[in-house]
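Section 3.1 - Work completed
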Amino acid sequence: MEEFHTFINNCALVDLPLQGGDFTWSRCGEVPASSILDRFLISLEWEDNFINAIQKRVPRPLSDHFSICLENGSFQRGRIPFKFENMWLEVEGFGDLIKRWWKEASVEG
């Protein structure tokens, strides 16, 4: 592992901290094991331009391997447009449910 870190330093690369866990692979059993198999390595110049960059561990549903995702902060996408599925109009009692919700709603301001 020391050789790997020396290589990263010699190439002037940055190993971003992993968020969401300490490793990307694990094995259970008699001799449990875990390791960081995946990582994003970035240059110092890249880090200067993307100061909010992080690598995040993605949940694993079935595998012994966690995928990772490179993120650069949150995105402001504006307001989410209202969407309505017309199929709800065909569900028995839906109209009455909406009427009840409107009567119960309290709006201020």
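Second construct:
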Amino acid sequence: MGILSKEIESFLEKSSWIRKMFEAGIELKKKFGEENVYDFSLGNPDAPPPKKIKDSLLKIADEVLKPYGLGYMPNSGYPYVRKRLALHISEEQGVEISEKEVILTCGAAGGLNALLKAILDPGDEVISPRPYFVEYRFYVLNHRGKFLSVPTLDNFHLNLSAISEKINQNTKAILINSPHNPTGVVYTKEELLELGKILTNKSKEFGHPVFLISDEPYRFLTYEDSQVPSVFDVYDYSIVVSSFSKSLSLAGERIGYVAISPKIDGKEKLMDGLIFTNRVLGFVNAPAIGQKIIDHLLEEKVDISSYKKKKDLMESILKEAGYEFYPPQGGFYFFPKAPGGDDVAFAKRLQEERILVVPGSGFEGKGYFRISITVPESTILGSKDGFKRAFLKTS
């Protein structure tokens, strides 16, 4: 009998390429020095948090000296924070919601797991466009669901016919992410409206709602004229999951939320389920300090000008070297084609230039590779010649 379950043993064998590249980077940095390795593997936000966070933490320090200053609160979060967050989300989404439709969670990941635990029966299916954030599959499997992916169009936008064909009696949800990790796509209002029509018709056909879950931690960061439409505005059974990990550079504090459409029939029961699963999954409640921080900083966000500058710089380098790619419309990532077509082999070729990227196969996006721009400008500039050499030697 082994130490680990057979399921986890199998998962580890297929473990995240992101972590593999991170570990490879540690070895390269030991050998060549950190400044001589160009690590684009992790989407760890590098913009400093807003300056007001210091004042917020000082206020919180005074508050926590009171009895129960960091004690238990309702499993859904502090009521006053939920109320303020609901107003914030209402303005952001253009659809009025109340605190009764919001629960605070341990990041977007905790929110997705609480949601999937609440809605999935064994064998229920969740469909997501591929490529996709690799953890989605594991989140669904955590709760005895079945994860299915469908291809996107060549430009990574939604292949609506493929989604429609995949939906069946067992489909419980469609899971999307916009701005998208890893492709940088922002879905348009038109394609989301069409998706909403498909889901409305399929829900009627199969006699139960098919939820539309939108994972939106990168909503705050778009480029050029791109805008992130509200899913609440296109489909009644929509749910938004998000966090402040990127928008406030609080990735380690694990503070996020689930917001449900006020039009959902049975929304009270859904919220009761979410509050229950948030508790029994062991999260109990979102971090108290994180909740207090966002109460003070809801209208703030990191300075996105640095991300925009780095996006333009990386775009220029890739174009000059000859790579094929769609410029990201939002988020932290580029997703170029791998010269020669073998993304794993090309990622290894880049390692020879001390450049670390993530093969697209890790996102079920074979033939591409992901670059994260959450790095110093010096890293992007230092990688320029290496990207050129790798391209020329492979093409």
